[in-house]
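Table 4 source record.
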Amino acid sequence: MKKILWVAGIVMLVVSTVFAAGISKGDLASLRGTWEGNAYIDSTTSQLKLEILNDAEPIQGKVTISNINRSWAGNWGWTGEHYTAESDNGVITNKGTIMFTGKSGQVFEITSMGKDKKGKLVLQGWFFGQRGKVDWKATKK
C-alpha cells in the first residue's frame, strides 16, 4: 500500500510540474493559429473557437462561442447565434497564463497548456462576458 501511495505521489508531482511551468514567450509561436473545442457551463456544451493572431506581446486574440444554450444565454444577456470577444492586449502573466481583456469588457484567459493522449497540444481556460463565465478546452485546428 505504501508503494502505491509513493508512486501516486511521484506521478502527481511530475504532472504538477508540467503545468506549473506555465506558458512562456517561447511558446507563443506554437500557440498562434486557430483552436477549436468546447465551452462548458451548467452541464451543457457549446462550440468554442479561439484565434491567436500573432506570436508576440501584446497578443491578439479572438474567442467565439457558438451553438449557445438559449436558457443560460438569455440569463446572461447574450443574443444571437454566437458570442464573440476580441482583444489586442493579451499578456503572459507571472503565473504563466495568458490574460486578455476584450474590447467590450469581456475577459478571457488561457490557464494551461498540455498534451492529450494522442500527443496533440491542448489549451484550457475560461471566458467571462457580461454576466456569464464559461470554462473551455481546445485543440489546434
